[in-house]
Amino acid sequence: MTPQSPFTVVAVVAQGHEASLRLLLETMNQQPGMADPDNTLVPFSLFERLHFARFALLDDATTADLEVFGLPRPKVPPLYLAFVGECDGPADDQLEEFVQKASGGLRRIFSHCEDFDASSHARLLIWLKAHNLPVGANYVNRIGRTVRQVLEESALQRLLSDSAPRSSAVDARAVRRQLLAHVKAERAAGRLTLTAPERTPLDWQLRNALHLVGVPLVGLLLLPLLIVLTPFALALLRREEKSDPEFCPRPGAAEVLAMQRLEDHDVSNSFTALGAVKPGWFRRALVPVVLLAIDYACRHVFGKGHLARIQTIHFARWVFMDDRQRVLFCSNYDGSHESYMDDFINKAAWGLNVVFSNGFGWPNTRWLIKGGARHEMRFKHYQRRHQLPTQVWYKAYPGLTLSDL
Questions:
Q1: Contact assessment for residue 352 and residue 370, using Cβ atoms and an 8 Å cutoff
Q2: Which of 52, 58, 191, 199 has its CA 20 to 30 A from that of 326?
Q3: Alpha-carbon distance 59 to 80, whole Å?
């Protein structure tokens, strides 16, 4: 089995470079927001281990929301460029392959960033790794399903579909034997490839086992302290919830339309959002604990085809930014934006509340899990206002949903 990894390269855009960077990113697309797999800057089709990738300009206007309530706006750069993706195997290996095959394009893109200095392949790789942010929580729909497996099994499915008889008056066992023989002949002729899974890396197995046992063990060791502190934490939580400002105005029609122009060009879509963590030490301390729990569940419970009851998310991640003042959320999902939000409301509203209720302006919650996303329109307004356009988005297997996979 080959495990999957995320990369999240984030850099501050230099003053005066935004317009030229936007124009440059547009040259990578074959339609609004959808990457040309063979674009000249970063030809994504060359990277056989790359599932999804995106370039997104992180221009978060919602930091001004705090000023509505007389709170200071977070001191953060006005604009970031994020290069985000998911790959088979270690992220560092994927970044190294990017440098080997697309160094010229990456230099042109990141030359618009403040501290970019990459006069050689080695320096470019060092720069990318230095700007690759750690992920607070990471979700993979099916850990171990590689791009190669997806594409090969899709080809197998098409072959079987084209070869299977359409009549119901057939002997099922005979049909199965015929199909197996046909697949064997196609493989022998070199027209169909089915690659055996690679051996799971030993170091990944050891780290995963240590994580599986270590996190609960630490929790067990801290249990006496947790028992003492939990009543105080709950009291603080409820006090915060009663005074937390709620700010969910309807997003501007022009902003929503601009977002919709980038959506539904494939059976899957991307989602990029950025928001400020609620001020105060309590929320700043609570969010890492929540993301630790989410990451644990994603690694050991939900990496088998579903996130809670939701079965349409390919990948998702939460990333701290600006000294934990803000959180970046990115996902790749099947279906429309509206159905994606409805899935969360109907199937995992409590889960949304656990993490996103720590974001400034979130619909009011009770005891962390109640309310919040259950207020449908307020929640939908909130997430649309915090969503950011994804300027360039690539998917290695267009036209395939998770149900197809």
A1: no
A2: 52
A3: 7
- Two tokens at 58? 């992180």
Q: List, as one string, the DSSP characters of 224-291.
A: HHHHHHHHHHHHHHHHHHHH--B--PPPPHHHHHHHHTTS-SSSEEEEEEEEEBPSSHHHHHHHHHHH
Six-digit token string for 273: 């959002």
Residue 261 tokens read as: 């122009």
Residues sharing a CB contact under 8 Å with residue 73, sequence separation 6 or more, in sequence order? 63, 64, 66, 67
Beta bridge partners of 142: 304
Closest of 377, 367, 383 to residue 242, by C-alpha? 367
Could you tell me the strand order of the sheet in which 50-58 lies?
A: 4-12, 80-88, 50-58, 392-395, 34-35, 29-31
Q: Which two tokens stand for residue 342?
A: 């409805």
Query: Which residue do the tokens 């509206």 mark?
Result: 338
Q: How far apart (Å, rounded) are the C-alpha atoms in residues 331 and 318?
A: 9
Which tokens sit at 194?
């089915």
70-122 per-position pLDDT tens digit: 999 999 999 999 999 999 999 999 999 999 999 999 999 999 999 998 778 88
**Rounded CA gap, 363 and 378, in Å?**
6
